Amino acid sequence: MEKHEGRDAAAVRLDDPWYDALDDGWGEPDGTGTPSAPVPQGKTAASERGHSAADIYLEVQRSAAFQEVRRRYRRFVVPASLAFFVWYFAYVVAATVAPELMARPVVGAVNVAMAAGLGQFLSTFLLTWAYARHARLRRDRAALELRWTVFDQKRIQEKARGSER
After folding, report:
1. For the segment 10-62, what is each residue's pLDDT rounded down to a tens digit?
2. Is the separation of the CB atoms in 150 and 40 below 8 Å?
3. Domain extents for the chain?
């Protein structure tokens, strides 16, 4: 990250290929009405013929690296979401069906309903922490490597187009 001084002191520039791509005009319409797009690593029929952004995005989506990132995402999110919803609905059902259970005192004026309600907040924060940790340890590096690969391939393709002219 780079800080600017002077008049635009609040502006912060991120060292990210997608940020740089916007400076290079990447994503701007290429004359056909579709935005230009990155090309995945390796020679492919779509990249050699200069297909539309949609073709290139589909090619990236079918890549093994992208599928691995999505698989890691689903392996965490699906079970965590199901567990959270079961916990949430169990609390709602217990409050509706078993009010006598929820009214039982736990400590002083704190009853089961209040403890479970506070547990809802706690579980939300814990789930958020677990999601961020999982993303940092299991997905972010792979996703960033995929971004860099795609962006580097796009620059190579642009240089090749520039040398053909």
Report:
1. 555 555 555 554 444 444 445 544 444 444 444 444 444 455 556 667 777 88
2. yes
3. 2-164
pTM across the whole model: 0.59
- The structure tokens 């907040």 sit at 121
The three state secondary structure string of the chain is: CEECCHHHCCCEECCCHHHHHHHCCCCCECCCCCECCCCCCCCCHHHHHCCCHHHHHHHHHHCHHHHHHHHHHHHHHHHHHHHHHHHHHHHHHHHHHCHHHHCCEEECCEEHHHHHHHHHHHHHHHHHHHHHHHHHHHHHHHHHHHHHHHHHHHHHHHHHHHHHC
